[in-house]
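User: What would this chain look like folded?
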Amino acid sequence: MGFWPFGGREAANVERASQEVTAAARGGTVRAKLTLFFKEPQTQSAADRAVERCAQIAASLLR
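Assistant: Here's the prediction, encoded as structure tokens.
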């Protein structure tokens, strides 16, 4: 943490993010764990947005 704990600047320290992907398939439900490894550290909010978007794309591909 910096000298001032307030200031509106989020630290870029997230190197990977994971999320479970669930999609309906013909015979039941498919579940998988999606993990993103970032080339450079990201802020928590940017990592959350990226993994959520990738999970949506993966779920749509599995349908």
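The first strand starts at residue 12 and ends at 25. If you want, I can go into more detail on any region.
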